[in-house]
Amino acid sequence: MLALGIVGSPRAGSNSEFYVSTALETLQAQGIETRMILLRGKTIRPCEADYKCRGAPDHRCQIEGDDFLEIYEQMVAADAIVVGSPVHFSAPHPTLWSLLVRAGFPDKAGFPNYGPGVFSRKVGGPITVARRAGQNFAFAQLLLWFHINDFIVPGSIYWNVGVARSIGDAAKDEEGIRIIRRFAENIAWLLEKTR
User: Fold this and answer.
1) Does the reported pTM lie above 0.90?
2) pLDDT tens-digit series, residues 103-146
3) Mind listing the domains of the chain with CATH numbers?
4) What is the DSSP track for 10-56?
5) Residue 184 half-sphere exposure toward CB, CA atoms < 13 A
6) Contact 35, 5 (CB under 8 A)
């Protein structure tokens, strides 16, 4: 089984990366293979809503010339996906959001006649990181993406939010670390039950 962590922060050594690493380390301790993708330095153009994916034989996004496809293929191959994002103006980072919209749009392009898509019954969920506020909006936006793409989303002892601002602050967020570890433990438990 493979769990993929995707970090949407543009900063090296970010707090988002810390929390996603914490989740992946917890999954590794449960015997699950993990891989992390850092979106920092990658180019993901936004969805053009041109519906070209609908007519493509593989139903994949047809935008070319960026880093989307290599990441998308890893998302499709994974059994679990965890995304982490800083909160900017109560929203996830735009690079991560562009990735997720383009990854999910082809399965919904046949609306309302779509059925289970490439992410159906994968396990996963989001982690958001903010200094103080805006968490609920960003977390909910990401959670809704997982929900509409037919993921099985486990809970934790609180919402998967970290409280951190400056690089390194996440390591001091004891409650946030406990939340993320329990979230990852629940992912491992679900993977065991569903495979």
Assistant:
1) yes
2) 998 877 555 566 678 899 999 999 999 998 889 999 999 999 99
3) 2-194 (3.40.50.360)
4) SSTT-HHHHHHHHHHHHHHHTT-EEEEEE-TT---PPP----HHHHS
5) 30
6) yes
